[in-house]
Amino acid sequence: MSEKQSRVVAVGPMPPEKSAYALARYSRSPDSIRQSLDWVQTHDSQKFLESFYFQYGHASIADLGHVVLCFEGISELVAIEVEDEPLWDGQARSSRYQDFSRSGFVTPPGLDAEQTRLYEDTANQLLAAYKDIHSRIVAHLSERLPKPGEMKPDAYQRNISARAFDVARYLLFWGIRTGVGQVTSIRTLERQIRRLKASEYEEARLLAGEIAEACANQPECFLDRATRPEPVAPTLARHVDADMHVMQSREDLRQWASQNLPPARGYELTKRGCAPDWGQKDAAAFRCRTAEESGIVDLLIPTSTSADIVATLLYPVTDRPYRELYELASDWSAAMRTEVLDTAVRSRTQRDELLRGFRGGPYVFDIVMDLGAYRDMHRHRRCQQFRQSFGTTLGFDTPEAITEAGLTVPYKAAIQTAFSATGALPEPASHYLLPFATRSRFLFKMDFAEAEYIARQRSGVKGHFSYRRVAWEMKRKMEEVEPELGRLIHATPPWVEDPLKR
Fold this sequence. Notes:
Blueprint: H1 16-27, H2 33-41, H3 45-55, E1 66-75, H4 76-83, E2 89-92, H5 113-144, H6 153-168, E3 177-185, H7 186-197, H8 202-216, H9 234-237, H10 244-260, E4 296-300, H11 305-314, H12 322-331, H13 334-345, E5 363-370, H14 371-377, E6 384-387, H15 400-404, H16 408-423, E7 439-446, H17 448-458, H18 465-481, H19 483-486
Antiparallel strand pairs: 1-3, 2-3, 4-5, 5-7, 6-7
Helix pairs in contact: 1-2, 1-3, 5-6, 5-16, 7-8, 10-13, 11-12, 11-13, 17-18
């Protein structure tokens, strides 16, 4: 290496599979990266990947090539499915800053003519209510929060409108259209496609095929118009099938649970009367909310790894709290816990990884929150996340601003209309009509650093009031369970507000 030659070499953009080939060869030979790139230009990267990645199982090779994909006009429900990857990088359109009524909605495949009419009529009613609530909340907030003298009028209007969207978005629903942009390695993309092909939602299964097709064809969007680039991942597109292990184990565990679990113990967190009082005397004005009005958080530190894994495997296929499942599994014999574990791995082949339920962290948060809050909390991927089936059983949330503005009657009427329609539609298509106000149960397993980050980051005054309450409650639970560590979490109480700060 000459004195002028840097030890750091910036490599310009190239097709992801060629990038993977170049870096893989670089790690397997004494040649410089420059020599490796020259080699790649004259050799077939697809043949290399066919042999070493797919045939010999050198999985790390596919981490060396990254693909940029955008998903346009997909439903919010399937956006959640797309993003449900621990190693995923990307962003979705935010419902907190723009009018989603212009986006239209996805009608789930498989509905007959009568069901389609019911779905579309209800969806249009929700969007009409969304627009009406937004305009009326804008008027309410403008009266309650006068413009500060130092704030420019356009900035003030943007902030008021955004805060009104925070309220109105409770009437958006899983079927609303959105857009998602992602950057992932070829390896993650393969896992994503296989998982989507095993989804219970037909839209997701169809999208998986479109992803493979997009990888096999020349890209539609590129900056250099003089040269049309090569397909981004043509080899990958030939080797992705449905993750049958995920699909089959889900059904096996659901069947085991229905046949073996005793009657529920009846201590649902959502039926305990009043949610936490937020724990401070100076928060007296921040009244104690009923269970229908706030998220509820339970924190457990499992002491039995096997009972924790069993409870986690059963959590998504039941409607029971994690604590109940963990206590049951802890009381069972080793033979019974082994039966659940064997059920989970029965369909596993040599190619399949262990299910996500076998992963975890020392702190397990079982959270009941509205779907809008989950949409934001779901973005925290330095933890393991699990969710139960969406439905109307846990009711819905009503923002304070709705009550303050005198909009409770039209708001609840819109929600109830949607809930009634879901009852007349088949599952899982009925999930598309669930408003963001709908409450559901989610499990987050993490280490302390991630718990501290989520509580601190999501409790700030710029955040949505729904997940702010969840983040604050996570801090409070940590203070109760781990006081030495809980004191290190500097979260912002939900009664500390700055509505005009974004």
